[in-house]
Amino acid sequence: MSRFLRGAAVAALSLAALSTANAAGAQTYNRLVVFGDSLSDNGNLYLASGRTTPASPPYYQGRFSSGPVFTERLGFNAANFTGPVTGSINYAFGGARTDSQASPLGMRLQLSQYQSRGGVFGAGDLVSILGGANNIFQGLPAGGASANPQGSIAPVALSAASDINFIVGGVAQAGAGTILVTNLPKLSLTPQFRGTAAAPLADYAVTTFNGALLTGLNATAAARPGTNIIMMDLFKIGDVIAANPSAFGLSNVTQPCFNGVTVCSNPNDYFYFDGVHPTAAGHAAIARLANDYLYYGDLGSQTALLGETAGRHREDALDDATASLSEREAWTAGTSISVSALVDRTKTDAREAIGEATSDGYGVRIALEGGSETLKFGLAGSYRNADVDAGSLNFDLDTFGLDIYGGWRSGDVFINATAGVAQDDFNDVSRLTSLAPVVHTGSTRGVSTGARLQGGMWFDVGGIALSPRAAVVWVNSDVDGFTEQGPAAQYDYKDRAVQSTTAEVVLRAELELDQFQFYAEGGYRDSLSEDSDAVRTGIAGNPAQVLSREIEDPWGGQFLASVGIKGTVMDRLKVSVGYKGRFGDAADSHMGGIMLTLPL
Questions:
Q1: Is 383 helix (H, G, I), strand (E, B) or coil?
Q2: CB of 364 within 8 A of CB of 321?
Q3: pLDDT per position as a tens digit, 416-441
Q4: CB contact set of 352 (below 8 Å; sequence gap of 6+)
Q5: Dihedral pair phi/psi, residue 134, rounded to 5°
Q6: Is the bond leading into 57 cis (omega within 30 degrees of zero)?
Q7: Alpha-carbon distance values, 168 to 105, 106, 157, 415, 545 (Å)
Q8: pLDDT of residue 465 exceeding 50
Q9: pTM for this structure?
Q10: What is the C-alpha to C-alpha distance for residues 528 and 562, in angstroms, rounded to an integer?
């Protein structure tokens, strides 16, 4: 629960920042324009009816609910239909059909009247379109009484879907940047239809409508690539809320709070205010679901952590491979085997839509080395685990690495190099959606490669051995794309490569006391080039576009530090215990380890 609360807070803060941010590439919307029916009506029918419909109270200030509707919870203060068309405006009318019905104002006429008053659409506009239920409500009595109920209601549903697609096409043609189109919910879950003979036919009508709507939206999206058409799947989420209402802070999802005569004393515990309309709590849940769809490009960029963590593992493995070829002790001919273990923690600051992240992990490594006084070669296999917690995103990474390395030494001068590859298994990837506590899950794999070249020398100053050295490191981590599983906006992540070339300079000091040597290092590492792909996110089964987000490297320049002690015990067994830290512009890493080396 603590993770849910922290993750929900991160998601809420991220959404708040994204809705007002001006950063390049962020999903931002300048204003909101709404077309729809009672689920989106912010008081239009109430004003048009002389403040009589719906009766307020018990309805809230002309809304068909106990509070503001979901479109009022998206971060915009939209005027009623009589307001200026240059700002955020709401044209939705309770009872509206999708056609050109005169009263209540049909959705085709809503668009027509908006445009006739001089209303236009721009690239920064968000347009919400939701309707079709009233067409079905009005067609169900005749459909249920006919000899072929499904054959009777199908044309009604298809005609309504055609109207919505016509409106979407018109809005897209007029230049709107983003259109949020919501499909219809499962009517058999509403108090009005639950357990009734009409429920199966109502659901058939809804699924017929939703199928035709999606087909049309896909066609419009292909024809109008300048507009991002996002379909919010309200149908899919209904069963999730109904199956576990307490998870959403609700206690009653089967009965209306207002039965036509009396109002319940605890409307915030109910999902439905009347037979089909949600309460304020219900609309709040729908708004959170909408945010999961509206900001998918930014929220999906959190998965940048996958490739970044794998790349860090590869860098560490390359560092370890050349470490034994850079010590002060002279090389001797022969073969040795070493076993090492480590624990580490990395903390990354929040950036863009990525929350503050913590990675806790451990690892083991086995290496076989052999050579002469001037040449040495080695082969190492390693395993690393990292448990990454970024608030609303969590995953577990298992890295299996193999490195080959070699070096040359003449007197106090040395040069060494290593190259390696690793398989990265990203397990238990979980994203706490904006509709907390709904969590989406997934898994994927990747491959990381890298190489490191290092050179340096040793000299003695007053009993202390000093070694300046420099290195260049190249790392590339390829992460396979994957699709989340879950009932909210199902993010579809594309393949991504994280690639960087860094250079470092380090000064190492060693002091020998009896059988033990103490060492300390200090240095600086910075990027020579950073060629990582953008994070690309779409929504599975959705006309929404694949959006790209460039993610800033959290490390930047890094100060490097390490200290430790090493020595020989039981005549032959060499033991080394140490600490290594990285301190970047927006990230810090701490690692502790022990290594045992035995000559063969």
A1: strand
A2: no
A3: 999 999 999 999 999 999 999 999 99
A4: 23, 26, 298, 301, 549, 551, 552
A5: -65, -35
A6: yes
A7: 17, 14, 17, 65, 15
A8: yes
A9: 0.91
A10: 23
